[in-house]
């Protein structure tokens, strides 16, 4: 059984040396000899040899027929460290997006898998283009046939965008505050709305609780917006991604929040 103390020591031992992490990274791909490790890492022979000895002594790796193999538990340590590093990089890269914003409605699972958003792009308004964030989302919705969305506030163009999608026989699933229902749904053409609802193409979930984030999941992209700590929605920046993992991440978050309201 692995104790908390031993686990902390293991993580510290591996994380404090860039050389050891590089060696583990190479051995995760396949077993390698010391000469191959020197060539692939571009680290001096003495440094590779010294760190291999330390890793072998602490039983992170094992030598077999002149090649070093990564032990299963060490592979788990390495992957966990890389995932953590990716999460830190993501937070630092988009510091303006996360800092001083409310992330209470992000699920535990979405936070644990936050590095699925690593290929995202931060879209921010500028003094010249104050509608950049909205127009970016609008373009993504217009190009899609299907959408899942959490709309915490009402934009005048939403009913029109939804109506156009339904007329193209696309599907729309929304989670909105209860007081927005009439303002969005009853502004959609009556016949279009009824046919879509009858055919399962329009699903609208309402909640009396506050929605603390903005989320759209289109055919090929997702977008995420947050509220500031003062309770106002930050319309000046959104995170957008077309990465398949990010779409999966957004769908899981949508379904989790839907179950909670």
List the helices and strands and how they pair.
Layout: H1 4-15, H2 18-29, H3 34-41, H4 45-57, E1 61-64, E2 67-70, H5 72-93, H6 95-98, E3 101-102, H7 108-112, E4 121-124, H8 132-142, E5 146-150, H9 158-167, E6 171-177, H10 181-185, H11 190-198, E7 202-207, E8 213-217, E9 222-228, E10 237-241, H12 244-260
Parallel strand pairs: 5-6, 6-7
Antiparallel strand pairs: 1-2, 3-9, 4-10, 5-8, 8-9, 9-10
Helix pairs in contact: 3-4
What does this protein look like?
This protein is an alpha+beta fold and 261 residues long. The longest helix is centred in the N-terminal third of the chain and has 22 residues.
Key descriptive features of the protein:
alpha+beta, elongated, 12 helices, 19% strand, two-stranded antiparallel sheet, eight-stranded mixed beta sheet, 261 residues, 49% helix
Structure described in brief:
49% of the residues lie in helices and 19% in strands.
What's the Cα radius of gyration?
24 Å
Structural class: alpha+beta
Total E-strand runs: 10
Which whole number gives the mean pLDDT? 89
Sheet with most strands:
8 strands, mixed
Shape: elongated
Cα-to-Cα separation, first versus last residue: 39 Å
Strand content: 15-25%
| Tally of alpha and pi helices | 12
Question: Low-confidence parts lasting 5 or more residues at pLDDT below 50?
Answer: 1-5
The secondary-structure element order is: HHHHEEHHEHEHEHEHHEEEEH
The share of residues in helices is 40-55%
Q: So what's the oligomer here?
A: single chain
